Amino acid sequence: MALPQVKQTATDARLAALSLPEGGWSRPAREAALARVQAMGLPGGRDEYWKYTRPDTLTAVEAPSAAVLEVGDEAPVFSARDRLKVVFVDGVFSAEESDELALEGLTIERLAEASDIHWAKDLYGTLETNGQTPVERPLAALNTAFATDGLLIRVTGKVEKPVHLLYRHESDSSDAILHHVVKVEEGGDVTLLESGPAAARFNKVIEVDVADGAGFHHVRVQGRDHERRAATHIFGRLGTESTFKTFTLTVNGVLTRNEAVIELTGDDAAVHVAGACMGDGDFHHDDTVFITHDAVNCESRQIFKKVLRNGATGVFQGKILVKPGAQKTDGYQISQSLLLDEDSQFLAKPELEIYADDVACSHGSTSGAIDEDGLFYLRARGVSRGTAEDLLTIAFIAEAVQEVEDESIQTEINELVAAWLGRRRG
Amino acid sequence: MLEIKNLQVKLEEEDKQILKGVDLTVEAGKVHAIMGPNGSGKSTLSYVLSGKDGYEVTGGEATLEGQDILEMEPEERAAAGLFLAFQYPVEIPGVGNMTFLRTAVNAQRKARGEEEMSSTEFLKVVREKAKSLKIDAEMLKRPVNVGFSGGEKKRNEILQMAMLEPKMCILDETDSGLDVDAMKLVADGVNALRGEGRSFLVITHYQRLLDHIKPDVVHIMANGRIIKTGGPELALEVENNGYADLIEEEA
């Protein structure tokens, strides 16, 4: 089927500006992905899935310029932790700043350097391809085709230390495409941390295959450079009795689209996808989640909280698809926004599609101002208006932050939120 | 301590006069009670004194130790020593009771130019005071008032009062929703705080709370005014005869 002319032109222009990496073992997957992009076309303003978020700056040939935020001597998040640190500067691996790529319980290599015979061959682009139906995600296919680097992590045991991907943004015009693959084998367990603004424009895909009885924990703090743009996808496939938990904190960034596409394929598995964002002014943040239940007795939770002010926009598109036979499914979805003034807006599209008869699925979406009764109660006890508002804001996002299993990371997240609130207050 | 002169208050959003000239003086160290039928303006008085939005003062004044409190923000009134025990304590999901208490104690100390309480000292004091109010560690950890029973909420109010050590405490129908045992526990908590020049204004419908918290002075409020003032015997009179006689007498 021919693409609409506008879409064809935009897609051709973008693809012409990129060159397919040599890729070795990943070359066939990249070529197939390129064919997918050509067939689908890049997202356009008329696509239903992009109704609330304009994709033009994400698909443009050149990345719109984004100033680098000077944070002075502020220590980056997670830097006090014992972890394996891997640094990418504007999407380019920094050997100098990274730790040696070795950690007990896993193997870790760079996509750009991985040898020809490779375990990741069966996975690279596979979960992304699965995630293209029933909804197309052309930016993810573009990523599979053109990713310049990324990490290939194979987890064979319970890994004590987290792997920390630290992204740094140093050039106003950088345009980064990274693709990570994580394979957690039976009984394995790993925590992946991500932080930083990455680039002026960042397209990132993570594919995560969690085998039977394995666990994957992901905590991401997207950098707070005001002008940066990011389109990210995390694709997950869960085996029997496995666990997958992801939490994202986003502060600032002019445009962020985070998609999570998770498929529960083994019985008794659990997936939790959570996010909190705090936006101000021309901030636009979109959480798009698609969870497919294709096994018995699985649990899924989607918990998204947005704090918006000065005209900021928050978007939530969340879907739970329960396939025939996925009995005893327990699905929960909540998306809420706290609008600190009348200029901000929250757009939500919660969806349930259920083809099994013995399931419990609930969803809810709310928008509201700060609770005046709670505010007065706190002030009547001597707490200043500003502090009271901060406390209530932190309380508002708490349900999402509590999805992070490690309490010390929860504390770190809350400190970031408090710092954001403090800066806003000036 | 607290001096209210000819206080007149209407609702901000509608043309409805609630308080029509309230005069009341509570001396340091005294316990005053205000009784009155529903709709007499008792709760409005407590809200206006503590600074809740939605009311407009159309006349009169209220001072705490000579300071005009009506011009102050609610948090400034609290730091000046005013405390309202709420009739309906507010639930605040996501804020731990301990965090709340500690934030409040230190905010007031800071506002008064005093040093903040260290976490060790705070823990020690809060545990001791909670114990006497039969508030367990679990309740201290839970979010403020969330999932608390009626009695637990009121005990939590008294715990806040004990931690904040205000000079002037207003108890707004603290007995509502309490069974006899819970009421006794709350009253014991209040009585333990009496003295040291601390004053109380106890607002209630019923005389029974005043069996436990013995007032020095009892006021009867009706239709936005104090219509009668007397000793503790006045509360008994209300208990036996109701408000009707008193209101008629005044009219």
TrEMBL record, chain A:
Family annotation (Pfam families): SUFBD_core
InterPro entries: Fe-S_cluster_assembly_SufBD, SUF_FeS_clus_asmbl_SufBD_core, SUF_FeS_clus_asmbl_SufBD_sf, SUF_FeS_clus_asmbl_SufD
Domain of life according to the entry: Bacteria
Residues covered by the SUF system FeS cluster assembly SufBD core domain: 171-396
PANTHER family, per database record: PROTEIN ABCI7, CHLOROPLASTIC
Name assigned to this protein: Fe-S cluster assembly protein SufD
Organism: Alloyangia mangrovi
Automatic annotation (TrEMBL), chain B:
PROSITE patterns referenced in this protein's UniProt entry, alphabetically: ABC_TRANSPORTER_1, ABC_TRANSPORTER_2
Occurrences of domain ABC transporter (ranges): 2-248
Transferase as UniProt keyword: no
Keywords, ordered alphabetically: ATP-binding, Nucleotide-binding
Recorded superkingdom: Bacteria
UniProt keyword Transferase, yes or no: no
NCBIfam families xrefs: sufC
Entry's family note: Belongs to the ABC transporter superfamily. Ycf16 family.
Protein name: Fe-S cluster assembly ATPase SufC
Organism: Alloyangia mangrovi
